[in-house]
Amino acid sequence: MGSLIRTTAEGVVDAAGQPVFNIVAQIGFDLSELENAPAADVIIDFSNVVTFDAVVAYVERTGAALVSGTTGYTPEQMDRLRELGQNARVMHSGNYSIGIAALRHLVAQATRELPGFDCEIVETHHNQKVDAPSGTAKLLLDAVVEAEPEAGYHPVYGREGMCGARDPKEIGISSTCTVFAESEVISQLAVGTDKCDIIAGIHRSVAGRVSGLCNRVGVRDRVVMTGGVAQNHGIVKALENQLGHEISTSPLTQYNGALGAALFAYQKALKKQP
């Protein structure tokens, strides 16, 4: 995200073709660089919760305005952010999309005009998403609660099993996302976690997710894994441990999908022949 923001900022020019913004620093994995970074008018933070203390310290030291799109903050961190806003210019949102802003207003309107209707928030994210529920889901939850503050709406996260009848004011929030992702890896590297432990954690996380899906449909004694990922011995071993079955692979696993597609196309072509 940092590179995207920088590229966007550098692409903004005035009528004379001169850059509008002067980028004084871009901070990567080493957060200590922020301690000595030169003062800027604005700091843009779309990163990870691990940067929170360093970003707050920079704003307090330089007086820079803060535009934050980082999600996953704890309630205590959000309180600290509001406190920071008493003495500095702070803008924070879980999602800056115009579409989400419109959706938030529509959700609030629906809450007021459809009393007695159940409300559920279900989201599915790409495998780079590490916090759940997302900032967007929290924005929509807040829209419901703020629209009817006396109604007693409250969230319930990830129901499972025989939960019984629902409270009419209960808002179920279900999130599907991968546990380990790019930003989580960055966070672990920043705090000095051994790379081998990070890789092993990723393997176990992926294997846990896949084995859960496999167990839903049933697992037989003979298990075959295809696709390019089957060449990753760490994933295969982690999945074998999760499933309790030996997994067979082939040196040519990455071609299986293409061969299968070709066979399907061939069979379909035969059916069309007179």
What's the arrangement of secondary structure elements?
Elements: H1 2-10, E1 42-45, H2 52-62, E2 65-68, H3 75-84, E3 90-92, H4 98-113, E4 119-124, H5 135-147, E5 154-157, E6 170-176, H6 182-190, H7 195-217, E7 223-224, H8 233-243, E8 247-248, H9 256-272
Parallel strand pairs: 1-2, 2-3, 4-6, 5-6, 7-8
How would you describe what is shown here?
The chain is α/β, with parallel strands linked by helices. It is 43% helix and 12% strand. Strands 1-2-3 form a three-stranded parallel sheet, with helices on one face. Strands 4-6-5 form a three-stranded parallel sheet, covered by helices on one side. A two-stranded parallel sheet has the order 7-8. Strand 1, helix 2 and strand 2 form a beta-alpha-beta unit. Helix 4 runs parallel beside helix 5 and helix 7 packs across helix 8.
Tags for this entry?
single chain; 274 residues; alpha/beta; three-stranded parallel β-sheet; 8 strands; 43% helix; extended
Give the proportion of residues in helices. Answer: 40-55%
What structural category characterises the helix and strand content?
alpha/beta
Query: From the alpha-carbon coordinates, what is the Rg to the nearest angstrom?
Result: 24 Å
| Terminal CA distance | 55 Å
Low-pLDDT residue spans = none
Tell me the β content: 5-15%
**Biggest sheet descriptor:** 3 strands, parallel
* Count of DSSP strands: 8
Strand order of the largest sheet: 1-2-3
Order of SSEs, N→C?
HEHEHEHEHEEHHEHEH
Number of continuous helical runs: 9
Overall spatial form: extended
Overall mean pLDDT:
83
